[in-house]
């Protein structure tokens, strides 16, 4: 297999477009809460920490949820390419509004809304174009390409966090927001430049002329779609009327978002599965995607504990004093994107090498190993946390090893999941199902909160038990996926990862 087929020409353009978009997103996100809670006299908004955290949670959850309508707009009306361009322009507008909002809160919050809407349009559709660069059965090349694309995401995240974070905290909040707008402008220019060159013919508007393949497919059931939508809306209304969720405050909306995420995910899946006019083979592949969605949500529920338990471990139990210098506890969070940048080329080459040797590892096996490695990463910290409770600071090598193992696990699951969703999704629903994949991360964050609520992760004394429980949970589900790999692959994919030619025609 040639390098060109591994990394098609358009992949580089998509890499940099996504890198600059992630620069703007993670850069702005790094200073958002800090700006919201900072005193008005210092240029901030002066909000209470609880309200600021609720706004942050609503914003990040909204970005993931809006990936679903963003994919729907592309699949039904604009196509992926136009959706990306419009989304990028809306993101840039949002950052500009944040930069010029000064003390006008309505402008600031409208800017946040614009960024969420724009990201919902851009993120699932740029991933679907990456998938369109590869043949359906080029599993190794596709996984390698998404691994490289994933590296762009993390490179943008690191650069954005450092640059926007520094400018916002040290000079002026609004300068930081403005820099994020410039980054998005660069990403948009890069994508538009590639539009008629390396990406020509990719992500165009959906055709209005039905092909023979489309005519052969069962018709969609619009009545069932309406019924599912009304049922979901009715459930939300009942929950609001019985005061199970509060839709009229930032904190209440943040708590309600968890219920809404689960409901939207279930309603969305059932709508496509039952009312989307799928063939029998497509329905089987949808079941595969549902299992992977659940596996990804479980993975992120453990992975996202890094923001609480691992931060406490770094702050209270890790030896961070080196001579006269002290390593900030927050810097350990950069180990994950750093390891992604270092390891991605090796992981990408690994997938290509396996395929060249005729070996294709089941996606369920990859997910299962990822969950097991997630658990092993926490297992390393169990004895270290017990030592830390004695008052002895442990070596930075413990936390470094955990982040290293978790990063390998992430590279086994996240880019592979993107690759598989783009490959197995029915073509007329590709962008929508890419949006569905991103909802798994949102649901994972919700599950992380539920797990944390049942464990003492807010103080050092509870960390050994918390790490043990997260290890056991992750390993158990990982082993379950390994055991299910062969029977599910046999049932849904005829015992092999390759798709039949009739399923891959464009």
TrEMBL record:
Protein location: Cell membrane; Membrane
Record GO terms (molecular function): peptide transmembrane transporter activity
The keyword DNA-binding is assigned to this record: no
Chief place where the protein resides: membrane
Transmembrane segments: 23-41, 53-72, 84-101, 107-126, 147-167, 173-193, 223-241, 247-274, 286-303, 335-352, 364-385, 397-421, 433-454, 466-485
PROSITE patterns: MFS (PS50850), PTR2_2 (PS01023)
Keywords on record: Cell membrane, Membrane, Peptide transport, Protein transport, Transmembrane, Transmembrane helix, Transport
GO BP terms in the entry: oligopeptide transport
Coiled-coil zones: none
Membrane topology designation: Multi-pass membrane protein
InterPro entries documented for this protein: Dipep/tripep_permease, MFS_dom, MFS_trans_sf, MFS_Transporters, POT_fam, PTR2_symporter_CS
CDD domains with a match to the protein in the record: MFS_DtpA_like (cd17346)
Family: Belongs to the major facilitator superfamily. Proton-dependent oligopeptide transporter (POT/PTR) (TC 2.A.17) family.
Protein name according to UniProt: POT family proton-dependent oligopeptide transporter
